Automatic annotation (TrEMBL):
The keyword Transmembrane applies. Residues 36-47 have a biased composition (Gly residues). The chain crosses the membrane at residues 87-111. Keywords: Membrane, Transmembrane, Transmembrane helix. Pfam families: PG_binding_4, VanW. It comes from Plantactinospora mayteni. The keyword Transmembrane helix applies. InterPro entries: Glycopeptide_resist_protein (IPR052913), Vancomycin_resist_VanW (IPR007391), YoaR-like_PG-bd (IPR022029). This is Vanomycin resistance protein VanB.
Length: 638
């Protein structure tokens, strides 16, 4: 039959009675001219429509007005009728669609929120409402928990590894999966006769996955070369960008979601990423900013005088490096600018003075603080960047902003610093003329009068900074690699031990301390502390609701540290255990010379110290400290 002479079929769908197979009545079949009911070579009754009944058992094709229907598979039908039968058989799918669109059939197929025939991971969810479907799916997932918690094999380039689902938040999102299954509406034919497997919705934490994959990837791919402009003195040096090829969190997450449940190692894509700043843009920055920036000085005017920012200072503080995307956003680093201008800033700035206390007549006396002023270097850095591309008019107006003291007079008066809570003294030899004694006095003066606010942590290294020759410290014996050698700042450990014990007996929280490797009889065992810049520090926290004042004093043979505040405990005491695991010193001969300091040797031992907090006539808290001292060798020079 020619393609443009297809028969026209008119059908009427009927309602399917309960328990019966669907039956469709075709009310008219119109064949093309010359081929209707025997038209053409075979002859027949022309123009007469036929009535055809379709059942699930077969087709019946009675001729209108004729006797009983011939069998559906009769071979002696006229040729046109056989062609009609083939046509109807080939059009069965279209008939079935009309059947399914009937009221009762559609009601059956769409019963419940999830269409019938819908399954997820082999679980039939058809005909259920969303809550029922979620419950059924979740129960199945729980029964097969090992399947969904087993590490997933992955490949990143030529590297292989495994990713734990729990570590990256990899899971089937039950609610989203059910929602997707319920919202999809397939055609009537699929609803009535077919089944549909819905892919589960999978969730994963892309950032956590990226972190895990980078552990597996190692050096797979190549890193991005980020663009930059650095300075060699005052000469700008460009660094040109190069793309990277590696993992990208969103693409990795997509690959894992799609490949997780397929039973094969998941190949993670390596994506090429180009820096945001191009080579041409780097060259433009060199020409239009970096070179003119250091071509000459910039004058800064203030109400207290002028400053000059030299090209070398500009080169140190101008930042032309890229962020992680490869974008260069030029800026002037405020901290570097302030550091480079420190000597000039001192001429125009006034330092704020914190309120403090001094002990006079064995009582704390308030010393008022005062405000100051300083250059607003944040604004200066911003305004400086605007004039750096210019060849003339290189002048910037800087503002002086008021600076309040960190500790105001009013704040300090409310801190409850009213009584001496504890005091501790250690002794030294050699008088105040010895380098060791001078170091002890120097660090004590630096700490004297320090106020630690409630909740603050005091760091001795943080307070004094580096203790070198420039700060007034001298060479004196220090322990280095297990023996006494000359070193700058020797003796500061004695002050550290004195401060530690003062805070210890004040009941303040111990944050960080380390006893000496060897025990010295001038210190109490276990509850003593050394210090060494920058690795060994002493820290305590003011864990009381009151302020803490550190007061230091000295004589020609002793150093004393007192803590002033408001008492929280009636008293703090110490109990020591007996010494155990005692070891004897070895004898070691050293080469004679100025670096050799002989010692008599000290026994090694382990001991406990218990800090007892007393309040209301009883011990309310108890802390244990334990330390193992090494046996100090007996060093002999020569």
């Amino acid at each position: 039959m020619p393609a443009d002479e297809q028969p026209t079929v008119q059908m009427a769908a009927v309602t399917v009675p309960a328990g019966e197979r669907p039956t469709i009545q075709i009310t008219a079949v119109t064949l093309p001219a010359g081929q209707q009911n025997g038209g053409g070579p075979a002859g027949g009754v022309g123009g007469t429509p036929e009535t055809v009944t379709a059942t699930s058992a077969g087709w019946e094709t009675p001729i209108a007005g004729s006797g009983p229907a011939a069998p559906a598979d009769a071979l002696d039908q006229p040729a046109p009728r056989r062609r009609l039968r083939r046509l109807l058989l080939a059009g069965g799918a279209a008939v079935a669609v009309l059947v399914a669109s009937g009221g009762a059939t559609a009601g059956y197929a769409y019963a419940g929120e999830v269409p019938r025939g819908t399954s997820v991971l082999g679980v039939d969810l058809g005909g259920k409402n969303r809550a029922e479907a979620a419950q059924a799916l979740r129960a199945d997932l729980d029964s097969r928990a090992s399947t969904f918690t087993t590490p997933v094999p992955v490949r990143v380039g030529d590297q292989t590894g495994e990713v734990s689902p729990a570590a990256v938040g990899l899971a089937v999102d039950v609610e989203a999966t059910v929602a997707a299954a319920a919202e999809h509406r397939p055609g009537p034919l699929s609803l009535l006769f077919g089944s549909r497997e819905t892919e589960p919705v999978v969730s994963v934490d892309a950032e956590k996955l990226d972190a895990e994959l980078r552990k597996i990837a190692g050096r797979t791919g190549h890193q991005m070369t980020l663009p930059a402009i650095t300075f060699s003195g005052t000469t700008p040096r460009p660094v040109y960008p190069k793309p990277s090829k590696g993992l990208r969190a969103d693409e990795s997450a997509k690959a894992l979601r799609e490949g997780w449940l397929r039973g094969q190692p998941v190949q993670m894509p390596l994506v090429e990423t180009h820096p945001a700043t191009t080579t041409e843009e780097v060259d433009k920055l060199v020409t239009e900013l970096a070179k003119p920036a250091v071509a000459g000085p910039v004058t800064v005017t203030t109400d207290r005088g002028n400053l000059t920012i030299a090209p070398a200072v500009i080169a140190k503080s101008l930042v032309l490096t890229a962020d992680k995307t490869g974008k260069i956003a030029p800026r002037v680093d405020e901290k570097k600018l302030r550091a480079a201008l420190s000597s000039q800033l001192g001429k125009v700035e006034v330092k704020a003075k914190d309120a403090t206390m001094s002990i006079q007549g064995n009582k704390p006396k308030l010393v008022a603080g005062a405000g100051g002023s300083q250059v607003d270097t944040a604004a200066l850095a911003r305004d400086l960047l605007a004039v750096l591309p210019k060849t003339d008019g290189r002048t910037v107006q800087a503002q002086l902003k008021p600076v309040e003291p960190k500790v105001s007079t009013e704040d300090l008066s409310k801190m409850g610093i009213k009584e001496r809570v504890s005091t501790f003294t250690t002794n030294f030899t050699g008088g105040l003329g010895s380098p060791r004694s001078q170091n002890i006095v120097t660090i004590a003066r630096d700490v004297d009068g320090t106020v630690v606010k409630p909740g603050e942590t005091f760091s001795l290294n943080g307070h004094t900074g580096e203790r070198g020759y420039a700060q007034g410290y001298r060479d004196a014996p220090v322990i280095l690699d297990g023996k006494l050698v000359p070193g700058v700042g020797g003796g500061t450990s004695q002050f550290t031990t004195t401060l530690f014990n003062a805070t210890y007996y004040a009941g303040l929280e111990d944050v960080e301390h380390k006893p000496h490797s060897y025990w010295f009889s001038r210190y109490p065992p276990v509850i003593e502390s050394t210090i060494f810049w920058p690795d060994l520090d002493f820290k305590f926290k003011n864990d009381t609701p009151h302020g803490v004042l550190i007061d230091t004093s000295h004589t020609s043979s002793s150093i004393t540290v007192s803590i002033w505040s408001t008492k929280v405990y009636d008293r703090v005491t110490t109990e020591w255990s007996a010494r155990r695991n005692i070891t004897k010193p070895k004898v070691i001969k050293l080469q004679p010379g100025p670096s050799c300091i002989p010692t008599n040797g000290i026994d090694g031992f382990t001991q406990d110290a218990f800090r007892l907090f007393h309040k209301g006539g009883k011990v309310v808290k108890r802390e244990k400290f334990t330390w193992k001292y090494l046996a100090e060798p007996r060093y002999s020079c020569g």
